Amino acid sequence: MRPSLHGSGAELVSLPVTELAPAKINLALHVTGQRPDGYHLIESIVTFADIGDHLTFSPADEDRLSLSGPFAPAITGGSDNLVARARDGLRRLLQARGVEAPAVAIHLQKNLPVASGIGGGSADAAATLRGLLRLWSAGGVGTDEIEALALSIGADVPMCMAGRPLIASGIGEKLSPLTGMPRFAMVLANPLRGISTPEVFSRLASRQNPGLVLNDPCDWMLNLAAARNDLQGPAGELVPEIGALCNLLQSQGAVLTRMSGSGATCFGVFDSRRSADHAASMLQAERPEWYFASTETIAGS
Q1: Does a structural domain hold residue 56?
Q2: Distance between CA atoms of 213 and 205, rounded to whole angstroms?
Q3: Residue 15 to residue 10: CA distance in whole angstroms
Q4: Is residue 88 flagged as an active site residue?
Q5: Domain limits at 185?
């Protein structure tokens, strides 16, 4: 790959720039209140997988957004795509500060199911911000400005920008790193039915629920077992397959199963990556019309 110079920082950039948009997994999600503007307050334990969507960024004569991958047909490359919104928002921010932000060709390989509770669109937007900051050599932009831009795109984008184990609170913008969290071998499972996050929240019986309590900093399985996802019940009313997925994961030896985010993706934690690989293979053979993928999450450091 030939190097090139871009942006006012005149830093050497190897082309093309690539970014992984890893799956975001809500190991627990407690809904603790609701603001007057309608946004829900949460406390969530978040981690990230070693699988996800892939984005590539290259200089171009005009902006382009192309799509590929198994779930590309479920989205469009128009201005409403969060990748395009992230590109355009960052360009406005940079240009207002006199930083060059020339045309770019972005290719999104969509490997994760859409509307599935694992942060696909938000992770793509976060990866776009990271990739374009590199491509446009815009390292001098303030962190606070980038974080504000990320939040304006979506409540989950700041945590996807962080890309590390953390507790997210507020509407998702208050982030506290979890340095002691271990890796987890797991299987992600989705019935390939999209689910509306607003509709899930609208079915909540209570919006004032107890917050997270981490009793033992050394026993994460104990902490997770004592936590919950307040959205799993309402989501299960809309997509009954969520319960079936958890049962299937348990049948393959998962030591903990739960829904991630607002669904419908569920995860099962296994005692090893080998066990997770075997379980994913068995479940995919049993239900070929559904999505199963083995993964390992990143550790807090």
Answers
A1: yes
A2: 21
A3: 14
A4: no
A5: 179-296
Instruction: List the catalytic residue out of 37, 156, 174, 219.
Output: 156
Q: What is the DSSP letter of 297?
A: B
pLDDT, tens digit (0-9, with 9 covering 90-100), for 216-247: 888 999 999 999 999 999 999 999 999 999 99
Are 143 and 79 in contact by the 8 Å Cβ rule? The answer is: no
Active site residue 156: yes
Q: Is 33 annotated as a binding residue?
A: no
Q: Is 23 annotated as a binding residue?
A: no
Answer whether residue 69 is part of any domain.
Answer: yes
pTM score of the predicted model: 0.92
Beta bridge partners of 58: 105
The 8-class DSSP code of residue 138 comes to -
Contacts of 281 (CB under 8 A, 6+ apart): none
The answer to whether 118 is a known ligand-binding residue is yes
User: Is 301 contained in some domain?
Assistant: no
With beta carbons less than 8 A apart as the criterion, state whether 39 and 155 touch.
Answer: yes
